[in-house]
């Protein structure tokens, strides 16, 4: 799906998704690429952490660990 489609489906603004992508918080590391359902899952997780008080800086360390665990 495109960035705009992901934004519409997730309710997260496209500029925030771009920022999260550039920060390395989503498996898709290029905001111009096609996003998958997995990216939407991770976006939902990032959004949940942020809504509950985590910072983007906190998530820069946490999300790669979560991705590693999900692949194992």
TrEMBL record:
Give the HTH merR-type domain ranges.
Answer: 1-64
**What Pfam families does its record include?**
MerR_1
- Alphabetical list of Gene3D superfamilies matching this protein: 1.10.1660.10
Q: Which residues form a coiled coil?
A: none
Its name, as the record gives it, is Helix-turn-helix domain-containing protein
């Amino acid at each position: 799906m495109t960035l705009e489609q992901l934004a519409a489906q997730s309710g997260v603004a496209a500029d925030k998704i771009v920022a999260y992508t550039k920060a390395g918080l989503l498996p898709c590391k290029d905001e111009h690429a096609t996003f998958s359902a997995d990216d939407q899952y991770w976006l939902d997780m990032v959004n949940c952490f942020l809504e509950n008080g985590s910072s983007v800086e906190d998530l820069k360390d946490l999300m790669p660990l979560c991705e590693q665990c999900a692949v194992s």
